Amino acid sequence: MKYKSIFQLVIVTLLCTSVFAQNGDDLPPKLDEYITKVLQTFNVPGMSVSIVKDGKVVLAKGFGVKKLGEAAPVDEHTLFSIASNSKAFTATALALLVEDGKLKWDDPVINYLPWFRMSDPYITMHLTVRDLLVHHSGIGAYAGDYLIFPPSNYTRKEIVGKVARLPMAHDFRTTYAYDNILYLAAGEVISAVSNVEWEDFVKTRILDKIGMNETTTRFSQMKLQPNVSSAHIRYKDSVRVLEHYSEQAIGDAGDPAGGIASNATDIAKWMITQLDSGKTQQKVQLFKPTTTKELWKIVRPIPIEKISPDISPAQMDFWGYALGFRSYNYQRYKIVGHGGKLDGFVSQVVMVPDLKMGITVLTNQESTGAYWSVIYHVLDYYMHNKPFDWIAGYKKIMDSSIAKSKSEQVPITLPDESIGKPPLPYEKYEGVYRDAVYGDLSVTKEPTGLVLRFTHTPQFTADLKYFQHDTFIAKFRNPDLRSDSYVTFALNPDGSIDQVKLKIIDPDSDSNFNDLLFRSTKK
């Protein structure tokens, strides 16, 4: 960044550093230099950091740039998608309705949504409002996500209605399996009970009360704001801008699970309210202290795995899911928080109730090692822990992951068109194929060849290139989806197409078509 005068440089410096000294609380020495090193090590263009302590903002500041290749800096007002950190807002909204006497945590969901169904009638009758939030309903991990990421044209109610067709992967209330779709059901409960849409309820009952005036509750609003970070993804050995983020990440139907965008200034206010038992920075009582205990109490324990020795101090002794929050320990302290990820953004909220402090890191590149390197460095300072080289540890993990991914990549050579031809004429593959949950998939012959389209998810449009046998390669027109797949057609005895099955090629892809089977609608 260039400045026309020393005066301008001084003014900018004062504006940036004034955020540090709002109340005189100290920070880890040379924190700016440390964060700059994190950005460089993990190739993260920009980051937003908030630290609160004893009800005050210690730090709310941006680092790096909003968009790779451009000079505009991230500041404390720059919006980032907070993704699944939105879930804590959904849980808090339900808690407010509990305080209002309009619902009860342990009431069946069908008391408020009479049309709601699970695939198991017993679970339908017994699934409670609390169960919606803790990922142990019995459906598989991430079940239904293709209805939400990338966005489909189904309404929120239509998406929740499809839960009835999701098979049970586990026994009821026995197994932690993270899902997003039941948070949409929670959003529908909020709307049904309050007669206000989730987005408006969260804004008026939570954001406005706290003073989070720059935070948006509709994903579609984010791109319209004046100070917004771009999304970035790592592709092979480089990082690039995710140009179609607003079209591919999530739609407004998914807002209760991950649609909020916020910044360092507003998230600091959110942490202060949570840490002060529902009391805002302006001493407005948003919710009761008993509600804090309810929101933070573990409902579903999560199995603990041995972590990499490269980051051994972070080994947890307990870990579990509460209502919109996770709870675990770091060293001798209990942590309450959550993470968030959408294509091109990752974030983490960490609060330490016993120290009355919290830290949030929002980033515009999918590097969890970057935000954890900052978080643990700050926690070590406030907890008076022995220093540890978090950057080196997470760098080793990142390098190992990249190397493993490269080794798993299988080069695919498509046959020459003159010798590689499918067993059937292209016209025979044309048709509409249906999945009970995700709807229709069409295959049509066009001048460029066969084209595959998910009818209800416009981002899932791919050109089919013949591979071998009855298998094609689906090359999605938006390469940033990283969803290229094998597409295999199964035949009936008469040679007609019976069904279509997809299988993801890229081992790093967030997509997982492997359980989808589309059957021909032809009779």
From TrEMBL:
- InterPro entries on file: AmpC-like, Beta-lactam-related, Beta-lactam/transpept-like, Peptidase_S12_Pab87-rel_C
Tell me which residues make up the Peptidase S12 Pab87-related C-terminal domain: 419-513
Specify the superkingdom: Bacteria
Keywords from UniProt, A to Z, are:
Hydrolase, Signal
Q: What start-end ranges are recorded for coiled-coil regions in this protein?
A: none
Pfam families membership: Beta-lactamase, DUF3471
Beta-lactamase-related domain location, by residue? Answer: 32-369
The Swiss-Prot or TrEMBL record annotates one GO molecular function as: hydrolase activity
Tell me the leader sequence span: 1-21
Recorded protein name is: Serine hydrolase
Organism in which the protein naturally occurs = Danxiaibacter flavus
